[in-house]
Specification:
By secondary structure, the protein is α/β, with parallel strands linked by helices. It is 57% helix and 11% strand. The protein is built from 21 helices and 10 strands. Helix 2 links the parallel strand 3 (44-48) and strand 4 (71-76). Helix 10 (240-255) packs across helix 19 (428-455), helix 11 packs antiparallel against helix 17 and helix 13 (294-323) crosses helix 19 (428-455). The protein is globular and about 65 Å long.
C-alpha cells in the first residue's frame, strides 16, 4: 500500500522511513485555528463513553475547540457511575454537555464511539440505527470493524466512518496534552484511517480530530491494519510479553542468580520500565546495546540471539489468531461471562509485593541497565517489528505500536505504579490478552530461551548483524524527531 492521502485543510509532508515514504501531518496548538474548517458543518461532537479514552479525548477536544461554537457533549448510560466523574470536570446536564448516550448519538453531527469493545459488539445495531444520515462515526480502535467482519455485516452507507487511534492509553493522551499547554506540540501520536467517505470531508475530519486531541504527528493507516497491530501489540510487547518477560527474569535472578528479591526486581521489571525504556525513547533500540560495556554487550548479544527466534515464533501464532478474528471472538465471548466470572488481579503475588517495597524506596540511579534483561526485551521488540513489517504494516505504525507507545506511554505508568497495575487496570480487551499470552511468553522464555542462553555461550553473529544493521533504527531516529518535546509526567 502507498501510505498517502490529500488534505484540503492541513499542510502535509513526506518523510522517509526505512525503504518507504509516508505522508504525515504535524500537530500542535498553532494548528487549532484550522479546526473549524476541518469540522465545517459540525455543530456538536458527541463523545460516547468514559473509560480510558473518553475523559481524555472529551476534555482535550473541548479545550481545543473553545470559542469555535462547536459543542463537545458526553453521552453515557443512564445511572452510569461515570456521570459524576464527567460532572467533576465540567460536563454537566445544566450546561448541555452531558446526556444519555443514545440521545447524544442521535443529536450529534460527529459521534466518537469510545465505549468498551464488548459494548460496541453488543450495541452496534442500535447505535447504527440512531446515527443521523450524513453524520460521522469516529472510532479509536478497529475492534468494531473486526467484529462486523466476523458477523458478515458493515457500517451504514449513509455515514462517514473514520478512525483516529492514539498510540497511548487515555491518561497519557490527557497528561501530555496538559503539559503541551506550556510547550507546543506535546501529546500522543495518532494514526488515522478513512473507512467510508460519503461527502469528501472524512479525511480532514479525522486529521482535525487527531490534532484537537493533541497528536504531535498523525500518520495514515487502514482500520483493519490498526486493529491487527493494536490487538496483536497488546498481547505482545505492549503488555503480554513484558508481563511474561519480567516474571521469568525475576524468578531466574532469585533462583539461579541468588539475588535478593529486591535486587531481582530491580534487574527485571525496574530495568525494563526505567533505564531501558528511557534509552529507547531518546536513542532508539540500538542505543541500549551501545550504552553497555563491551562485556555486557556480549551478554546482551547472547540473550538477544537466543531469544529472538523463540519469541518470533510465538508472535506468529498471536498475529494469526488476531488476523483470523479468533482473538476478537474470544473477547466478545468473554464479555458475556465476565459479569458472572470476573477477572481477578495479579498484584497480590510475592513478586509484585516486592515491587511495592522497591518503588517506595526507589533511587533511579541504583536501577541497573541489566544486559540479560536488555537483550531479552529488545529481542521481543525486534521480533514484533519484523513480524509487522512482514505483514505489510507501515513503518509509522510499526514504530508507534511496537516502540513509541511502549516507552513513551505505557512503560512510564508501569514504572510509577508497576507492571501488575497495568495488567490489572487497562482495557478489558488488553487485560484478557495479557492474561492469555503473558504466561505463554513466561513459560517459553524459561523453558527455551534461558536454556539456550545457558547452554550456548556463542553469539549468532548473523542475527546480531541483522539487528545492528536493521532499517528500523533509521525509522525510529526520524520518529524521535516527531515525538512529544517533553517526557510524560505521571502523577
Amino acid at each position: 500500500m502507498k501510505w498517502d492521502f490529500t488534505s484540503k485543510v492541513f499542510d502535509t509532508e513526506v518523510i522517509r522511513l526505512g525503504d518507504s515514504e509516508e505522508r504525515i501531518v504535524r500537530g500542535g496548538r498553532d494548528r487549532f485555528a484550522l479546526l473549524p474548517k476541518a469540522f465545517e458543518g459540525i455543530r456538536q461532537i458527541g463523545v460516547i463513553g468514559w473509560g480510558s479514552q473518553g475523559p481524555a479525548q472529551a476534555q482535550n477536544l473541548r479545550e481545543s475547540l473553545e470559542g469555535t461554537g462547536i459543542r463537545v457533549k458526553v453521552g453515557l448510560r443512564p445511572g452510569s457511575r461515570s456521570m459524576e466523574s464527567a460532572r467533576q470536570v465540567g460536563f454537566t446536564e445544566a450546561n448541555g454537555t452531558l446526556g444519555e448516550m443514545y440521545e447524544v448519538i442521535g443529536e450529534s453531527d460527529m459521534v466518537l464511539l469510545l465505549i468498551s469493545d464488548a459494548a460496541q459488539a453488543e450495541q452496534y445495531e442500535r447505535i447504527f440505527a440512531t446515527l443521523r444520515p450524513g453524520a460521522t462515526l469516529g472510532l479509536s480502535h478497529g475492534f468494531l470493524l473486526a467484529h462486523l467482519k466476523n458477523e458478515g455485516k458493515w457500517f451504514p452507507e449513509t455515514i462517514n466512518v473514520i478512525g483516529v487511534c492514539p498510540k497511548g492509553m487515555g491518561p497519557s493522551v490527557r497528561r501530555l496534552y496538559v503539559q503541551g499547554k506550556e510547550i507546543n506540540g506535546a501529546g500522543i501520536n495518532s494514526s488515522f484511517a478513512v473507512v467510508q467517505d460519503i461527502d469528501g470531508r472524512a479525511t480532514d475530519q479525522a486529521i482535525g480530530w487527531a490534532i484537537a486531541i493533541g497528536s504531535p504527528y498523525t500518520f495514515v493507516t487502514t482500520l483493519e491494519n490498526e486493529f491487527k497491530s493494536d490487538v496483536f501489540g497488546e498481547r505482545a510487547v505492549l503488555l503480554g510479553a513484558v508481563h511474561g518477560i519480567v516474571e521469568a527474569l525475576y524468578r531466574r535472578f532469585v533462583m539461579d542468580k541468588r539475588m535478593s528479591e529486591e535486587d531481582a526486581f530491580r534487574a527485571s521489571a525496574e530495568s525494563v520500565t526505567g533505564p531501558i525504556s528511557r534509552i529507547i525513547s531518546k536513542e532508539g533500540i540500538l542505543g541500549v546495546y551501545r550504552a553497555l560495556s563491551p562485556q555486557d554487550q556480549l551478554i546482551f548479544a547472547r540473550m538477544y540471539t537466543a531469544a529472538y527466534p523463540v519469541l518470533y515464533g510465538l508472535m506468529v501464532e498471536i498475529y494469526e489468531e488476531v488476523a483470523s478474528g479468533n482473538e476478537v471472538r474470544s473477547v466478545v465471548a468473554a464479555g458475556k461471562r465476565l459479569a458472572k466470572y470476573p477477572m481477578g488481579k495479579i498484584d497480590a503475588t510475592r513478586m509484585w509485593r516486592v515491587g511495592e517495597r522497591v518503588r517506595a524506596t526507589r533511587v533511579e540511579s541504583a536501577i541497573p541497565l541489566h544486559p540479560e534483561t536488555a537483550g531479552l526485551y529488545c529481542a521481543a521488540m525486534m521480533a514484533q517489528i519484523d513480524l509487522l513489517l512482514a505483514h505489510g504494516h507501515s513503518y509509522s505504525e510499526v514504530c508507534n505500536e511496537s516502540v513509541i507507545e511502549a516507552v513513551d506511554s505505557l512503560n512510564p505508568y508501569m514504572h510509577a505504579r508497576g507492571v501488575a497495575y497495568m495488567v490489572d487496570n487497562c482495557s478489558t480487551t488488553a487485560r484478557l490478552g495479557a492474561r492469555k499470552w503473558g504466561p505463554r511468553f513466561d513459560h517459553l522464555i524459561e523453558q527455551e530461551v534461558f536454556t539456550a542462553f545457558d547452554q550456548q555461550p556463542q553469539v549468532d553473529e548473523d542475527r546480531l548483524h541483522a539487528f545492528v544493521q536493521h532499517s528500523v533504527h533509521q525509522a525510529l531516529a526520524v520518529c524521535a524527531q516527531l515525538r512529544p518535546p517533553v517526557d510524560i509526567s505521571v502523577v
